[in-house]
Prior knowledge:
By secondary structure, this protein is α/β, with parallel strands linked by helices. The chain is built from 17 helices and 14 strands. The chain starts with a helix and ends with a helix.
Amino acid sequence: MDLFEKLRTNLGPLGKHSEVSEGYFAFPKLEGEIAPRMKFKGKEVLTWSLNNYLGLANHPEVRKTDSEAAAKWGAAYPMGARMMSGQTDLHEQLERELAEFVGKESAYLLNYGYQGIMSTIDSLLDRKDVVVYDSECHACIIDALRMHLGKRFVFPHNDIESCEKQLQRATKLAEETGGGILLITEGVFGMTGDQGKLAEIVKLKEKYQFRLLVDDAHGFGTMGKTGAGTGEEQGVQDQIDLYFSTFAKSMASIGAFIAGDAGVILYLKYNMRSQIFAKSLPMLLVEGALKRLDLLRTQPELKDNLWKIVNALKSGLQEKGFSIGKSNSPVTPVVLNGTVGEAATLSKDLRENYSIFCSVVIYPVIPKGMIILRLIPTAVHTLDDVKETIAAFEAVKDKLMSGYYRNTELAMSFGE
Length: 416
């Protein structure tokens, strides 16, 4: 078979719906200023799909810094990879400030979150090493582990008893290979909104020898007293060996970082292929990140405003009988039962008739028969936004339970 022919005939579990989904459910275009209310298909919608947790995307100080940095440096400076010609004082300053903020000796600036965590894991491990990881880890971690030539053991999401069993298996194997053990989990799981059980995992260090890598993309800036992350929230930040986060969430920008012991970070700087062979993060993004980090430290009201909305949204949904699973972070999943087709029709109803835009999660991302409406509260949402959304959700839930969406044309086009 021709290589391309098989791609045309099998678009995959999501791609097979592309004719009816593209431009609406997949690859939708939100237009206008980044804000709780934007335009979709020419109509204003209240959106809960932007990872702009602290509202920094259009914060006036951030916009000012970004524009001034763009005018000063352009988009090109510095040219080349950092190891060769792309190192600057500001890159180093940002790394020092990030390390201090999350309580680590050192940090290394990365161009992208997805690429950065993949390359971090790839650089840390060789074929002798063994990995233990949570089954709900993000796709970037799963992709990294696909490259790992050694063994890996998975435990069901947040199941500490199973985690310990996998550590026992890993310990036995590592003793045979002469390798080490890396345990990978997340601070906040982006789909379900529950925190990784970091405090329980670090207690296992008393019995087993392993290193802990935490991807805290959704916890950085939102969790903990100072916003330093889920480790701070649970009182175990100092026992996280490698702390990773992206700038794409609370920082509302592009970039990422990995932080930990100075010796380990030094090793990564000289061995991470995705950074060694990639252009340095542009200065306008570096200056922008410094300003954003400064606001995280000096304006705690940003996080306070976020949690005011989070708490109002969650309590309001639960009072109306909605399930939000085990979420204990800003991520708010509204769990419903229904088919893929019903999910599509419900989502369109929300957008067209209630002006509510949120992400709908369906099979194969989650099991068949389940629908998740995933809400991302931000510091710039209002309590009126919360009330409007809950009222809309009540209406569509009643329609879903009555079977209203079951036999619509759109539902039928998403054949199960």
